[in-house]
Every structure is written in C-alpha cells, then in structure tokens.
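Below is the data:
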Amino acid sequence: MSNSNYQMLEKKFKVDLVVIGLFSNKNIQNLKIHFEHNRKKNIINNLFGYIGGMSEERVKQILELIEEEKYEYVYIDGSYFGKLAFKIKNTFNKIKIITFFHNIEYYYSISGMRKNFKRYAYTFFSTWLNEYLSVRYSDLVIVLNERDSRLLKKKYNRDSDLLLNVTMKDLYKENDLEEENFILFVGSNFFGNLSGIKWFVENISEKISIKTYIIGKGMEIEKEILENKNVKVLGTVEDISEYYYKAKLIIAPIFYGGGMKVKIAEALMFGKRILGTKEAFEGYVRDSRVLIEVNTAEEFITFLKDELLKKNTYEEKKISRRIFLENYYLEKKSKILIEKILEL
C-alpha cells in the first residue's frame, strides 16, 4: 500500500521521501532521510510514547527538513506517527497533514493481544496515543473501507475524509502457463496470516487430495509447524507471478486483522478465484463466482472436494480481472486522492 500511495502522489506533486525500515532503492533521488529499524531503541522509544521506529531525535530531523524545504503538505503513511503530526502542526501550523490509516490500530492491537498478548501489550498505550494524535492533528484522514470508517467514528468521534481502498499497478501478462494441481496461500509472517494458515493446515490440508503451497515473506521460518505431506512452504520468493498463474485456486483463511487484505486484490489482478473468509474479503466488491466465502473447516473441505477438479474458465478469469481493473487499479484511483488533497 505504501508504495502504491507514493506512486499516486507522484503523479501530481514533487514528493520527497522519509523512510523508516527496509528500503531497497536507497539511490532514489528524492530519498531525503532513511532511518534504520533498531529493535532495542524501539523498545526504549516506546516508553516515551513513540512507535513504528519513530523517536524524539528522528522527529527533530524531520522538522529540520520541513524547515529547510518549506513543504506545503506532509503525507504520513500510517496512524503510528501521531506524535510527529502533533509536533509538525505545532511548529508549522499552515502545513496540511494527510494521514493514511491502514487499520484502526487501537482495535487491531486488541485483536492482536487475543492471539499474542505479550507482543502487542507493551506497545498498546503508544499505539493508542499516536492514533489519537493522528486523528486530532490530521487535516485529511484516509481509511481503506467502510468498516474502518465506522471504527474511527466509534473510537475517536471523527468521520473519515476519504475512503481509498487497496490499489496497485497491473502486473498481469498474457502467458501460456498451464494450471497445475495445487492451491496457493500468499501472505507474510504476521499473526493474522500465520494463525489463519495454521488453522487451515491443522483442520483441512490433510482432508483434501490437492497440495497447498504457502508463499510469503518470513514464512520459511514456520516450515516445522506448517509442512506436512500435503503442504509445501516456499516462504519468500523473488517472483510470485508464476505461482499465481499456475495455481488452481487462491485460499485466504483469515479470521483476524483490519483494513483490507492486499493479497485479495493481487489475486484478482492475476485473474484467479479466491476461496476465503468474511474477514479476508472485508471491503472488497463481491462476486460469488470468483470471491467465494467460506468460514468453517467443513465449508472449505466441501468446496475443495466438489469444485477443485474443475478448471478455471476464461469467463471466471475475465470476472476477476474486471473487478480488479474497475476497483483496485492504481491509475483509476490516483485522481481521487489528488483532488481531495488540492481541496485542503
């Protein structure tokens, strides 16, 4: 999402970047500051109300950059950086701040604590504080879907200013690759994805005849708990497209999380059918021919046994592609974001 939003902004504005964490293209001309993640320092900074790699010193560097460059707008990608928004507004009160909420982090953290209390509890106060400050000091609040808009209103009594769902470039290419006899799960190693695919492995994978491939950043370290005779963990791969083209079906057994699941849009882009839960499809335009909702192990097993021998039809592929192009294609959404910013 972060990269897609950057590409949309770049169509109209000169955009300078401040990046926290991993960033592959360090030679990009408009990269002004790159902060590395430091786990030990993050723990200490959390005690002072900072999260997401931010700190008092880093805020100071950003304020100095703003003073030097005289920016009109500051776009903040995520509600983790409310203390930064607060300090920007109090130093440069004419600057317009736009914050993109990937989730309503307060509720996301509560959901996380139910699965892994220790991991999410120690950052809970900082998460809430920064989100509260993001809501209060942002001139434009963007959310991904209606659910997040409702949760924003419920917790912080503020309406969202813009619903801007998942967008991405169209990477689909016509090819001669044949479907193979496997289903595919795509998702990085975080609690929502891991708990979902672990549930699938334990309750479904050995009750169906087809093999399941698992792809996603960091998933390779979970091989021991996920692999069995019917499940192969590939983890991080360089090019995911070949697996999408060859998969019979994409599965999305997701029960926890917030925002929208980007991999659903990616699967639609590649013209695939998706078998997933209500949570996996939250915020998406629904067509039951290609977005097939199942929420129990029995429903997954029944569908996979009854339907999997069928080959994806050209018509189903066209439906998936049409949903993507009409709703999640980056080029169509950039104009909406730019117009909203220019109204500030």
In short: The mean pLDDT is 92. The chain has two domains: 2-167+330-342, 182-327. Residues 56-69 form the longest helix (14 residues).
